[in-house]
Amino acid sequence: MIIRFFFSFIILCFLQIDCYSQESASPPKKEQSLKSKRKLRKADKKKWKEERATQRAEEKNRDAHHKRVQTKAVYKRMKQSRAKSNSIRANKRDPFYKRWFQNNQKRKRVHITKERTT
């Protein structure tokens, strides 16, 4: 546990943020009114939502076309290989960075012993 915090401390030491004590010598920017800023943010958000919707629709259409093009045998083989890969992947151990910072109570396993009936 001490080693875990030691390594995380070392990593944090290397991730220093550069801070400047003085501002740049550029001329001061003109202040925009709150209403105009709000309008700009609203327009940007609307544009972002539209782009995201079109991108998701494209991905959905691409996936549907990919499935539609496959023959029945190929689609069955794809399904079987996907199930096999999921089952193999489920038995793998968590990566070290997840295991290090897991709650200790989750890692400890309680072994329940059954009483013998003789």
Number of strands: 0
Q: What Rg is obtained from the alpha carbons, in whole angstroms? A: 28 Å
User: Can you summarize the main beta sheet?
Assistant: none
Query: Could you estimate the helical fraction of the residues in percent?
Result: 55-70%
CA distance, first residue to last residue: 44 Å
Please report which band the strand proportion falls in: under 5%, 5-15%, 15-25%, 25-35%, 35-45% or over 45%.
under 5%
Give the helix tally: 5
Q: What's the rounded overall pLDDT mean?
A: 81
Overall geometry comes to flat
Structural class: mainly alpha
Model regions low in confidence, pLDDT < 50 over at least 5 residues: none
Helix and strand pattern: HHHHH
Primary descriptors:
flat; 65% helix; mainly alpha; 118 residues
Would you write up a description of this structure?
- The chain is flat.
- With 118 residues, the protein is mostly helical.
- The protein contains 5 helices and no strands.
- It has helices at 2-14, 34-69, 72-90, 96-100, 104-107.
- The chain has a domain at 36-87.
- The two termini are 44 Å apart.
- Helices cover 65% and strands 0% of the residues.
Q: Would you spell out the secondary-structure blueprint of this structure?
A:
Layout: H1 2-14, H2 34-69, H3 72-90, H4 96-100, H5 104-107
Short description:
By secondary structure, the chain is mainly α. Helices cover 65% and strands 0% of the residues.
